[in-house]
Amino acid sequence: MRTDKELQQHVMDELTWEPSLDAAQIGVSVDSGVVMLSGTVRSYSEKWAAERGAERVKGVRAVTDEIAVKLPGDTERSDSDIAGAAANSLELNALVTRNRVKVVVEKGWIRLEGSVEFRYQRTEAEMAVRNLVGVKGVFNAINVKPLVSPAIVKGQIERALERAAEMDAKEIIVETHGNQVVLRGSVKSWREREQAEHAAWGARGVTNVQNRIEVCW
Questions:
Q1: Which ranges of 2-146 would DSSP assign to H, the alpha helix?
Q2: Residue 80 vs residue 72, higher pLDDT
Q3: pLDDT at 165
Q4: DSSP state of 169
Q5: Which of 45, 67, 205 is nearest to 126 (CA)?
Q6: What is the spatial distance between Cα 176 and Cα 207, in angstroms, rounded to a whole number?
Q7: What is the pLDDT of residues 199-210, one digit of tens each?
């Protein structure tokens, strides 16, 4: 197990290695495996990249992101400009359901509201606005609302597992609780485990997947 000092160095190395951000102004501290990021970056996309970079390091239990976004003077934009750019970006993204997502901007922060049928649409909406010039942060409040019953969702996932060539679907148990899915059972590889989880996320209305499948070599 890595010590906090070792984790700190590994996180710093990972942030320096990440090409999409300038890690020079980012501070890293670690307490019992929990990483706290501080300092400043020039865009929200850099802040997001720093958080994801820290999460990738083996041994990190959690990440607290206290990084502030300080935009260069020439990238400051009014809230109305940001809102218009965000609306256009969502409109041009074919993966986001048209007219289902609302944009609210306050002091450079974007809040996404509305409802979609699939989790990937919620994620795609956030990705569509994350890198816009002038954005200081994104709060994703989009709901994933199922349009079908849990029983139908369960059946859809089970059929998807049966179609997978590399998997023995009989060894996997699918439980549905509202719009949440729990996977149990055993598979022969991590690839099969990940494939099962991917199949569960593909069902309409699913907002959470707990993958409790064991890998038995």
A1: 4-17, 44-56, 79-92, 119-130
A2: 80
A3: 62
A4: G
A5: 45
A6: 11
A7: 888 887 787 899
Range of the domain at 86: 73-144
184 & 196 share domain: yes
Same domain? 111 vs 125: yes
The answer on 38 and 14 residing in a single domain is yes
Report the alpha-carbon distance of residue 86 to residue 99 in Å, rounded. 13
Q: Which residue has the tokens 């590399």?
A: 166
176 has a pLDDT exceeding 80: yes
Q: Given its phi and psi angles, is residue 22 left (phi above 0), alpha (psi -120 to 50 degrees) or beta?
A: beta
- Compute the distance between CA of residue 116 and CA of residue 190 in angstroms, rounded to an integer: 30
What's 86's domain CATH number?
Answer: 3.30.1340.30
Residue indicated by tokens 């986001």: 96
Tokens of 36: 């706290």
Entry pTM: 0.61
Q: What confidence tens digit (pLDDT) does each residue in 123-141 have?
A: 999 999 999 999 999 999 9
Parallel/antiparallel/unpaired status of strands 143-144 and 109-116: parallel
